[in-house]
Structures are given as structure tokens and as C-alpha cells.
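Can anyone check this?
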Amino acid sequence: MTSYPKQLAVFVILLGIFSCLLPLVGLHFKYLWFLDEFGLVVGYTLKFALIGLGVLIWRKGDVTTEELEATEADTSRKPWLHILVSAIVILSLVGFTVFQFVSDARADQRLNQMPPPAPWASTSAKDWPPLVLLQQAEFKQHTPLRAGCASLVRLPSGQVVALTVAHLLGTPGGVEPGFLANSLVLDRSKLATLDSQIARWKLFVPGRDDQTVDVLGLFGKPEQFGERCDELLMRIAPVTPTCPVKTLEIRLKPVSIGEPVWIVLYAVIEEKARQVTEEARRIAGFGFTCELEKAADFRASTGAPVLDKDGLLVGVVSGKGPGSFEEVRVLSVEPITELIPVLKAALK
């Protein structure tokens, strides 16, 4: 019969192997989350150390009774060794807990800081600089993306990334088989393959195709995006001085009912795509719902940024109310607060 130490050894070894293999298929085991908190290199070092610990326990299981008694007799003469090991373990656990608490508190503090108003926000909306981009993407094993908008945002961590709507990576965006479990729910295992599937993803302003922003891959880990989250943050190539749009700051304070917001999008005027701004107000309803001051054409505007009076981004357009896209009066918005798990992780 297999001894208890060997049973424990097998369990520890399999746990270590399991923790190493899970991230390779885009999954996350919540009971081993602490192993990844120290970064990729240290995390995998700890995981391999777990396997080594299992091997050590297995070898200890082969120790004979006489050897075990001799070892116990020897260690009984060195009680300080047990005390030292126990103290190191306890202090390590306490230190890690304190580190996590302080790290979380600092992250929350930075997330709650309100950015200053954008310099251009006090001017007439028709004089605002370019703020929204169109997007096109080619994938290796999926049909191309030819829909929706994106914007550049600066995170509380200082990083500049692209923001778009997640459901465009499925049938609504023309992407097949896509990266969704259905038309609205993200498939995290498929999302984990996004980086390797991108052949070319560019963001651009109509008429300025020579000044594009290249998307490199997903920002953050797939498990940080909720299954119902309809927003994606994307890593981009370094922003150059010739970048065609301004970077937006984000506001995490919720938008109150009746508060005015502005949606920045493209409209065809005199046969040319031009940036326009539509004023709206948040109304009571399911989720984040906005009513426009007047009906507007919102074709190809999914993902358009929604700004407050200070020019801070509070969400993105994700859908519309009843009626056609040519005469939209009510919009559904995905609040930027959906992305707090990703934003918080970027601060640690």
C-alpha cells in the first residue's frame, strides 16, 4: 500500500504540474493565484519549487524506520531549527498578506484619483481634436474585422492603450469563427489566442491612412475580463508625435442619471467621413442608457468613446435602442468601470 507521505508527494507534484500547464491554455486556477502575483519568472520558479517539494516528500517517504528514528533523535537536540523554520514560514505569510493589503490600498487610491479636465474640453465640440479611430484587422485563422471604432486611452498606471468593444471580435464585427462563446459572451480560452492570431490590426483616421496605430495584442490577462465584459484593452505600438488622435483620460466615477455626456463618432458629410459629436444624457434604465438630444446616424459607430463635460472617457457605445442605426435616439453604453480588474492589476 502506498504510504501517506507518498500520496501527499503525488498530490503536490501534480499540483505543481497543473499550475504550470494551466496558463498555457489560457486558464486560471483561483487557488494558485498567489503564485503569479510575483511576476512570470518568480511565479514559474515557485511552481517548479512546488514540484521539487513533492519529489523531496516522495524521497522522505522511502526513509526506513531506523533512519527516521535517528533523524528524529538528531533534530530533537536542535529545537531551534524547528522554531526557525516555523518563524520563517509565518513571517513569509504575514509579509505577503501585508504586501497584498498595501498594494491593493495604493491601487484603489490611484484608481479613485480624478484626472484633470482635457484642455480642449472647454472649447466648442466642433473644434475638438481628432479623438476616435476606425479599425481594420486581419487574423490568421479568422475572417477579417471591418467594423467599429476605437480610441486611445491613458490608464491610471500611465500606459497608453487602445479601447474597443469586445463583441466586434465575433459575428457582429464579421469575425468568424471569432473569439466569443456566443454573440455577447467572451470565450477566455479563445481570447488567450488573440495575440498569436493577429496578422495586422490597424487603427486609423479616414483620409489619413499613412498615419496609423498598430495593435499588438491584448492588454492584461484573459481572466481579468469578465465573461459579460464588452470592452477590450489592446496593447499598441509606441505612440509617436504624428499620432492622428489625442489620448483620452478615463473617469471611474459613475455617471449620474441626467448627467450630460458627449459621443464622438464619424458621420458621412459631403461624401467624406468626418468626426462629429452628439450630445446625450444618461437616463434611468437597464445598465448605462443614454438618450440623444436629437436622433442621429450611428452606423459603424460601435465602440465610439463617450465623454463627460471635462472630456474624460466614461464608456463606449455598445448598442442602440429600438429602430434603425440611421435614426438612433437611445444608446446603450458600456461603462469603463467594467475594466477595473484590468486597471487595478496594471497598477501592481
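Reply from J.R.: I decoded it. The longest strand covers residues 272-283.
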